[in-house]
């Protein structure tokens, strides 16, 4: 028995890391998956992986911060499957890592629109399709900006992640009347590609030493960063009826990293 049989899920950032692992997990539990990502080629690989174990997936090549392309993606999903039950608003970037003094307004906007405006769009566009039958929305925030403030140079990132928590809670409140649940997950360090190429050669930052690498012992539970598959288990739980009374919650998944 597959608990998510006949359900349809949109996964943004589904071609890599946490999104990929979650798309696979939701698919194994029976959901049909729309992989919404900028990196179409990688998304196609995930689609093939899903199909290799008998799952169903489509790819929409989309910038999650672009309202027209997001509308197109949602339309594609509805045209294909006629319903929407789960939205995992997860695509994100670290953005430019710079001290505030040097951070440009354009770089600030880039991070805020990619991480935060995208979440607003992911939720807003789901409402017309979910208001009849309810649904579950999961938003990937972070411990950064919501419980810890240790990543020097990531003011825009931390602000976007804090904004996702506030937005997710407001959405949970507003959408409860439609039985649309909205929960926010806050991972600590997870082994993905997100940190690659984002940390610049900045002397000022080097002096302060951003914790780019997560040293031995940085997560008390396992002494290393978490795995995307561990986050995917939480995403599946929040997507499924096993969490039917949970909404507006912010759940940390960090092996106690943020308590250090
Ligand atoms: P990742 O880089 O492996 O995956 C992110 C995905 O988002 C990529 O497939 C990328 O192509 C996609 N993406 C980026 N910008 C996009 C855009 N404008 N439109 C569409 N797709 C876009 O990284 P990840 O670690 O799996 O990140 C997923 C989420 O987890 C992010 O929101 C991130 O902030 C959050 N997070 C990650 C960690 C960590 O340590 N990895 C910790 C806390 C929170």
From TrEMBL:
<dbReference type="GO" id="GO:0008206">
    <property type="term" value="P:bile acid metabolic process"/>
</dbReference>
<protein>
    <submittedName>
        <fullName>SDR family oxidoreductase</fullName>
    </submittedName>
</protein>
<dbReference type="InterPro" id="IPR002347">
    <property type="entry name" value="SDR_fam"/>
</dbReference>
<dbReference type="GO" id="GO:0016616">
    <property type="term" value="F:oxidoreductase activity, acting on the CH-OH group of donors, NAD or NADP as acceptor"/>
</dbReference>
<dbReference type="InterPro" id="IPR036291">
    <property type="entry name" value="NAD(P)-bd_dom_sf"/>
</dbReference>
<dbReference type="Pfam" id="PF13561">
    <property type="entry name" value="adh_short_C2"/>
</dbReference>
<keyword id="KW-0560">Oxidoreductase</keyword>
<comment type="similarity">
    <text>Belongs to the short-chain dehydrogenases/reductases (SDR) family.</text>
</comment>
């Amino acid at each position: 028995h597959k608990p998510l049989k006949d359900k349809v899920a949109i996964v943004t950032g589904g071609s890599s890391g946490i999104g990929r692992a979650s798309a696979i997990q939701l698919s194994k539990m029976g959901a049909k998956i729309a992989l919404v990502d900028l990196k179409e080629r990688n998304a196609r690989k995930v689609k093939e992986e899903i199909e290799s174990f008998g799952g169903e997936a489509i790819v929409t090549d989309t910038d999650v911060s672009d309202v027209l392309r997001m509308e197109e993606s949602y339309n594609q999903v509805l045209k294909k499957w006629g319903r929407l039950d789960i939205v995992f608003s997860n695509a994100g970037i670290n953005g430019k890592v710079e001290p505030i003094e040097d951070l440009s307004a354009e770089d600030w906007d880039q991070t805020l629109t990619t991480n935060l405006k995208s979440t607003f769009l992911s939720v807003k566009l789901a409402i017309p399709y979910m208001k009849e039958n309810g649904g579950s929305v999961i938003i990937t925030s972070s411990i950064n900006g919501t419980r810890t403030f240790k990543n020097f140079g990531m003011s825009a990132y931390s602000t976007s992640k804090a904004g996702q928590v506030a937005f997710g809670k407001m959405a949970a409140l507003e959408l409860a009347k439609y039985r649309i649940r909205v929960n926010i997950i806050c991972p600590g360090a997870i082994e993905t590609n997100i940190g690659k190429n984002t940390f610049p050669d900045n002397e000022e930052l080097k002096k302060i030493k951003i914790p780019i690498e997560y040293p031995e012992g940085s997560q008390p539970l396992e002494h290393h960063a978490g795995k995307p598959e561990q986050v995917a288990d939480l995403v599946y739980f929040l997507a499924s009826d096993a969490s039917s009374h949970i909404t507006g919650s912010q759940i940390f998944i960090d092996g106690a990293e943020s308590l250090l």
